[in-house]
Write a structure and sequence with these properties.
43% helix, mainly alpha, two-stranded parallel sheet
């Protein structure tokens, strides 16, 4: 069970920044095949929470922000993955011994609208779904990413915690979430499709991984305990 948040020092934006840094520090200790200009995974299948969308909005200057929202509006009709379940929703469904009803992304997935010459235009503030898209082998050679079970568990843990932090927000594709966050009333659209976030009810941590990731879990719990919602 995750701790209840209580007023201390962190806003949700600050907490998310700490979560990103914690994850990046952990992943930097591993050796992945991913490198600059490797963009096979950067597609319209990418998802994020509304908090992550607000994080992007928070750190962009006015000009870059205007460009980003213009790009999102330009892709309002682009085929994209629109999830039926959040990560915590999936966990709860499994906990209830139900079969998750999820639809697959459109095939083929199109390149992410934020890609520029195979580089991410918002790389330093990219969502967690982009950060955790890693592989131990070259996707261009194998046709798919290769990731071990422990790294998959770590990724799922962070996805669950980020959603828990934004439990009053929503979840969807990059295009849909940013369209829903459009700050200019003249351009707001009802064509964004999102689903509500959910709090953690069960962490999807296999028993054999618990001891190995306990330090990460302890730090995440500490961040959540210091965070003020909103």
């Amino acid at each position: 069970m995750m701790p209840k948040n209580h007023p201390t020092h962190l806003s949700d934006i600050e907490a998310l920044g700490k979560i990103y840094r914690l994850y990046d520090d952990y992943m930097n200790s591993l050796s992945f095949a991913c490198e600059k200009f490797c963009a096979e995974c950067c597609t319209t299948a990418m998802t994020l929470t509304s908090l992550e969308g607000r994080f992007i909005d928070h750190f962009l200057d006015r000009q870059k922000k205007a460009v980003l929202y213009q790009q999102m509006r330009g892709h309002v009709h682009t085929p994209r993955y629109q999830p039926a379940l959040t990560t915590n929703g999936y966990a709860q469904t499994c906990l209830e011994n139900k079969t998750p009803a999820e639809k697959a992304p459109p095939e083929p997935s199109l390149p992410c609208p934020l890609l520029e010459n195979d580089l991410c235009a918002i790389y330093s503030i990219r969502p967690f779904g982009c950060r955790c898209m890693v592989s131990f082998s070259k996707c261009r050679k194998t046709g798919s990413a290769h990731i071990d079970e422990l790294t998959l568990t770590v990724n799922t843990l962070f996805l669950q915690v980020i959603e828990h932090l934004d439990q009053s927000g929503f979840f969807g594709s990059l295009i849909d979430v940013m369209l829903c966050l459009e700050p200019d009333p003249a351009h707001m659209t009802k064509k964004c499709v999102t689903i509500p976030n959910r709090p953690v009810t069960q962490l999807m941590i296999p028993p054999e991984h618990r001891e190995k990731i306990q330090p990460l879990l302890d730090t995440l719990n500490h961040i959540l305990s210091r965070t003020v919602q909103g």
